[in-house]
From TrEMBL, chain A:
Keywords: Membrane, Signal, Transmembrane, Transmembrane helix. The chain crosses the membrane at residues 264-286. This is TIGR02186 family protein. It comes from the Bacteria. Residues 1-39 form the signal peptide. It holds the Pfam family Alph_Pro_TM.
TrEMBL record, chain B:
Pfam families: TauE. The keyword Membrane applies. It comes from Ancylobacter mangrovi. It is found in: Cell membrane; Membrane. It comes from the Bacteria. This is Probable membrane transporter protein. InterPro entries: TM_pro_TauE-like, TSUP/Inactive_protease-like. The keyword Membrane applies. Keywords: Cell membrane, Membrane, Transmembrane, Transmembrane helix. Belongs to the 4-toluene sulfonate uptake permease (TSUP) (TC 2.A.102) family. GO terms for cellular component: plasma membrane. The chain crosses the membrane at residues 12-37, 43-63, 84-104, 110-131, 169-185, 220-237, 243-260, 272-289.
């Protein structure tokens, strides 16, 4: 992560690419601009409907691209967010933030083993369709404390609340959260480090400014990752914004991967010849007679 | 120091990989087997996806078997004729194995079939080799001469029609069992992701009665041809060959193979067979244990490739 001195305030563009400079400028401007009088205003928080678009959320990421070079062994992307108050918000208003990071979708099969004839055999399976290959749920406190379960489910806030579409017979449906296949799927993905739930990862560095580190493991799949940030206040959804970043191979790694995909014939022949060359060289080097 | 594998898409420690390459290379040089039956499980244990592990190991095996074949070629120990006849069956077997691979993966029972095949084959081959070599060693220890091979005393399957003389191997047998052996090796090899050397060497020694050193040399030639074609086929159809992974394994493997070959040449054939038998049996028992012991996680998650 690189920090530079704040420059002129640029218009916030949360949906476009992340701009660390713009964010820092916004951050600085906001901290300085909060008038002291506002702080003494009576709290007249109006119960905002869950779908309100009132209030602004400015989001930025420490990098737009996680690059995979030969020394890559995992990385982290830092998410910054600034909640701009609306007229109705008091200064004492507290916010809750749930950031959900989803990697490219992939279909998975979860198998259940059972003992048959003394051996552990796959006996049953469920297909998980278009499940995120990476899923991180970061929040400032357990999402269950932020709002009612119905709202959390609707907003997919919290790992248990994320929809994972399963194929059940001919139907496609998500099942109850304590479904053993669903739980096993989450457990296996969590043990691989690809599914993460951290209820203390979102940190408020000022009342309206938060940051969170998104852990990218070494085995993170390549593709576009979306960061969906939901701000809750008074047990209701206040703002919903998202940004995205890429995980991509660069340089040599990219060259190898594209060669393998686009010039499969050449790649195969070159690899085979390379193997023979290594064998031949070894034979010459270690020749005894 | 970690290195990122571009096709396997994960970082691994380069020294772990090198050490694995050297260790497996040593074994493969010593016994004249490809070492795939050791390397593939090791890579999967490291976290490399099985399709990438199977495909990338073939580069390592191609390199070390080429190096070994050159050695034996120079010493004129390779029976090229026998190799070609085996290959004719092996190619058909490989194709059949690839088809079976896809069918079994569909039903989610591939792991089980592979495990059972490993246990059955490694267990049988390992036990047979140990029993036979212990007998040979006991005979030697007692000072009894080994029973001479009588030319006419062939088992029934070698007396089948289409006989052919393999001069290098000093055998005159029907090609039906030879092609069948080639087919089985190709089938099991592509199904289990191994070169099949650990099956071929004993099969040549015990079934076809080819001299041990010629068996080893011819098996290396066969491994070389099947592995080179495996590299190209996997690259074209699955795109799962990781050249970086392969290169690290190859460098370690060829170095290890040289030392292994030297260790193997200085050893008596009976001892060599006894050790290989022990190793094969140990791997078989290990696979059996994994299949019988209660796994820590009763569920497994795989990527649904048919949905891609």
């Amino acid at each position: 992560m690189t920090r530079s001195a704040p420059r002129r305030r640029s218009p916030p563009g949360p949906r476009r690419g992340p701009q660390p400079l713009a964010l820092l400028a916004v951050l600085a401007a906001l901290l300085l601009a909060v008038p002291p009088a506002r702080a003494q205003q009576a709290e007249t928080a109006i119960e905002a409907p869950a779908t309100t678009s009132a209030g602004h959320l400015v989001l930025s990421l420490s990098k737009a691209r996680v690059t995979i070079a030969s020394s890559f062994s995992g990385d982290s992307v830092v998410l910054f967010g600034v909640i701009e108050p609306t007229a109705g918000d008091g200064a004492a208003q507290t916010y809750d933030v749930v950031a959900t990071v989803r990697g490219p979708n992939e279909s998975f099969v979860t198998w259940r083993k059972e003992r048959r004839l003394g051996m552990w055999v796959n006996v049953d399976s469920r297909s998980f369709l278009a499940a995120p290959s990476y899923l991180a749920v970061l929040s400032n406190r357990p999402p269950a404390l932020m709002a009612d379960l119905g709202l959390l489910r609707r907003e997919q806030a919290g790992l248990a609340q994320n929809r994972l579409l399963q194929r059940v017979g001919a139907d496609y449906a998500d099942v109850v959260p304590d479904d053993p296949f669903r739980q096993a799927f989450l457990r296996v993905k969590q043990s691989q480090g690809l599914y993460v739930e951290r209820t203390d990862a979102v940190e408020f560095i000022a009342p309206r400014v938060f940051q969170a580190a998104i852990p990218i493991p070494g085995i993170a799949p390549i593709g576009t990752y979306t960061v969906d940030v939901k701000v809750f206040a008074d047990r209701a959804l206040l703002i919903d914004r998202s940004v995205s970043f890429e995980v991509a191979k660069i340089d040599f790694e990219q060259a190898v991967a594209t060669a393998a995909q686009q010039h499969a014939w050449l790649y195969g022949l070159a690899t085979a010849l390379g193997a023979l060359a290594v064998g031949f060289i070894a034979n010459l080097v270690f020749r005894r007679d | 120091m970690t290195i990122y594998l571009p096709i396997a898409e994960l970082p691994v420690n380069i020294f772990t990989l090198l050490a694995m390459g050297i260790a497996v290379g040593f074994v493969s040089g010593m016994f004249g087997v490809g070492g795939g039956f050791l390397m593939t499980p090791l890579l999967i244990f490291l976290g490399v996806p099985p399709p990438v592990a199977v495909a990338s190991v073939s580069t390592h095996m191609a390199a070390s078997s080429f190096s070994g074949t050159l050695n034996y070629m120079r010493r004129k120990l390779v029976d090229v004729q026998l190799g070609l006849v085996l290959l004719s069956g092996g190619m058909v077997g490989t194709l059949a194995g690839v088809l079976a691979f896809h069918v079994l993966r569909r039903f989610g029972q591939l792991d089980l079939v592979i495990a059972v095949a490993y246990v059955a084959l490694l267990g049988t081959v390992g036990t047979l080799m140990i029993v036979e070599s212990v007998r040979a060693l006991l005979r030697q220890w007692r000072g009894v001469k080994a029973p001479l091979r009588r030319p006419g005393a062939h088992p029934w399957f070698l007396r089948m029609p289409f006989k052919m003389r393999f001069r290098q191997s000093r055998i005159y047998v029907s090609i039906i069992p030879v092609v069948t052996i080639g087919f089985s090796i190709g089938f099991l090899g592509s199904l289990m992701g191994v070169g099949g050397g650990f099956l071929l060497v004993p099969a040549l020694i015990y079934l076809l009665r080819v001299p041990t050193i010629t068996s080893v040399a011819t098996s290396l030639l066969l491994t070389l041809v099947t592995m080179v074609s495996a590299i190209v086929l996997h690259s074209i159809f699955n795109q799962t060959v990781d050249a970086v992974l392969g290169l690290v394994l190859m460098v370690g493997g060829t170095i290890g193979a040289q030392f292994g070959a030297r260790a193997g040449q200085s050893m008596k054939a009976e001892n060599l067979r006894f050790l290989l038998g022990l190793l094969v049996l140990a791997v078989g028992l290990r696979v059996a244990y994994d299949q019988i012991a209660r796994p820590a996680e009763l569920y497994a998650v795989t990527i649904d490739e048919s949905a891609r």
